[in-house]
What does this fold into?
Amino acid sequence: MAGSTEVRDEAQMIAKILGGDSQLFHELIRPYERRVYVMALSFLRNEADAEDAAQEAFLKAFRNLSSFRGEAKFGTWLVSITLNEARSRIRSRDSIKMESLDEPPDDQGHTSPALLRDWKEIPSEALERKEIRLLLQRAITALPLIYREVFQLRDIEQLSVNEAAAALGISIAAVKVRLHRARMMLQKKLAPELKQVAPKKRRWAWS
It folds into this structure.
């Protein structure tokens, strides 16, 4: 019952906004601000670009609010707008900028002389976890965009299959197929690299 109340409240807020109470839009989007920013950042890999994309997504949502239909959740509709904005910005990048997506930000920061003196004080497991996160980040950003989008929405953002399909504008079957392929690509890419990172006698359990 709580979920249906939330949907009705948002529907009422949208109706009031369309009726002229534009200030209420800030309250409408408040629960989604962080999610939209993180979504943009996960694709653009640049904080300034992500902030710009998130702002533009909210502006487009406001301008096109009258076209929103209650068939999908408002949050799902907002994710779809954010996704399209991120896609547009990725397409506009030249080939050099596209290649830079494969490099995690500040990847070389840990090798600075100021930090090397503390090397022995860092637990080996923490270092291995950090390296695994970087490997995973590289592998995800190297996925073809159509597979990266599905993986981001389903396995990272934890959207349902229906919500991911609505956000991407594709069928539920397509979501399942793309997600399966994305996971297989990641497994194929990461398996040999993880063997080099992890000690030979240790089995890594994904948490």
